[in-house]
Design goal:
Largest sheet: 6 strands, mixed
Order of helices and strands: HHHHEHHHHEHHEHEEHEHEEHHEHEH
Distance between the termini: 23 Å
Strand order of the largest sheet: 8-7-2-1-9-10
Strand content: 5-15%
Structural class: alpha/beta
Length: 410
Amino acid sequence: MSVPEPGHPRAAHREWLLERLAHYLGRPVEETVPLSEYGLDSVVALCLYGDIEAEFGPLVEPDDIWAHPTVREFARYLASRDSRRGAGHRVRPVFVFTGQGCQHPGMTTGLYLNSTGYRRHLHDAAEALLPYTGLSVVDLILDKDPRIHLASCTQPALFAVGYALARTLQDAGVVPAAVLGHGIGEFAAATVAGALGLTDAARLVALRGALMQQLPYGGGMTAACITRHEAAELVAGEPRVGIGALNAAKSTVLSGEIAGLERIEARLASRGVRCRRLAVSHAFHSPLMEPVVDRFTAAARRLRGGIARLPFYSTVYGRLATEPLYAPYWAEQLTSPVRFADAARAMLAQQAPTHVVEIGPRVVLSPYLRRMGGPACVPVCEGPRSDAVDLAGVISALDAGPLAAGLAGA
């Protein structure tokens, strides 16, 4: 990951330019590679010039695009011309927490080894989880334990990582204007927002993962390039299949019984529609989760919950949640579709953030968010190699203070 230089308004312009160029050129663009190597022509350059004028005003001339051959150089020039994003520009970030599927063995190890702040918060979450998991999620992560892909381990580990990443950013002075979580990511989001305490959230997450792990195998999930209306028609005749997630206008996940998914996949293939079976052990957010709802609800009723102190955008409702996040909410979340696209659009429109910070062990949601337009997307962890240097770059991009003791090492 490239670390923006101090006084980094370039970071926001860079993200915007990368998204626009990828849109026009039809493939991702590296910020240090000359644009001529991607086939940039006068048509694309003029389209980009028009976009710049619409987004930022009359800051540049068409020739300036050719005079700065890489995104990095052009972003620096554009930032220097854009007084709106200079010293008086107020950064307003929102936090988006990833869900199940982004886990990988050894996730965030680089951060754990080199950031005392992250290490401390991960241990706090691990200690809260230990009475219910029976194993340390820190050991699970550092040992690159393959059990990380079991629901009973995945969900607690992702909760711990999301919680620790968010608290580390907050320690550095990054104040979220709002939070949103995808699936299991909602528990970390609710904890950061103050609707759940760490101990109660840890108990709920551990129980959720354990109950799901006990369910019989035989369920699956399929991602398809279809709209929600097409998805609704497909599942109408399959009572054991439901809509698992709505991630974008034409990015839907179907979840349920394997036999039903296979019939739907065959119908999609006959229409020439792309679909992909996801590597999951169970059909999350589907009718197959119903057997655990009563037991989960009974346990959740004994725990405290409340109204979030930060704006909490619910992927159950697809909007800002003003209701208390009590047991009924978390029970409904087990089987409800993840209405990520609706919740994200509502958050972007209502909160007007300058940055969306994706919080998780690797990039999953930023591509969807970038296509919605607007703010720069800043993932805390690009992937397995992310470390404290990358975290310092993120904090710099968000106008927060230095990591100080957080980067002091062991």
